Amino acid sequence: MTEAPSRLAADPIAVARDEWERRGWADAAPGMAAVTSLMRAQQIVAARVDAALKPFGVTFARYELLMLLTFSRKGTLPMKLIGSRLQVHPTSVTNAVDRLEAAGLVTRSTHPDDRRAFIVGITDQGRDLAARATDALNAQVFAAPGLTPTDLEALVDVIGRMRSDAGDF
User: What is the mean pLDDT of residues 98-123?
Assistant: First the structure.
């Protein structure tokens, strides 16, 4: 059994912010604290998600691909559209599909209108795994992420504005 890390006496990001201000970078201190906080929060959330998905043998990227196929009308999508919807490079889609296909969770076939393109389809085994993984994520991560419902809505709004400003959508 692994031991939980001990809590720090002070927030290291707050300490760094104080140092930023002390060194004359006060204008950049709030941004540094926000970006560093986001990056640390991402590490915390990723660890929780990884732990929830570990029993299913899939990464979050592969889980997202399975869910995207689950949400599609026919359970199939062109690989190019998968990359676009998940906002990842085609090489990442190919890698994820390769692994999911090897595990029997998806199939890949030649696109009927373009022999250079591929269609990915979710198998019954893939649907089952996606459903069980979703139950685990909902119970272990999504239902109680450590913020109030009001804070969650505010966070989604703020991060959404940041993403939009960056051209994410």
Answer: 94
User: Do the Cβ atoms of 117 and 80 come closer than 8 Å?
Assistant: yes
**Treating both helix axes as pointing N-terminal to C-terminal, what angle do 90-102 and 79-86 enclose, rounded to 10 degrees?**
110
Q: What is the mean pLDDT of residues 77-89?
A: 95
CATH of 57-169, one of 1.25.40.180, 3.90.79.10, 1.10.10.10, 3.40.50.620: 1.10.10.10
Instruction: Please give the model's pTM, rounded to 2 decimal places.
Output: 0.88
Give Dmax (Cα) for the chain.
Answer: 64
The upper half-sphere exposure of residue 6, i.e. CA atoms within 13 Å in the direction of its Cβ, equals 3
Residue 1, pLDDT above cutoff 70: no
CB 40 within 8 A of CB 5: no
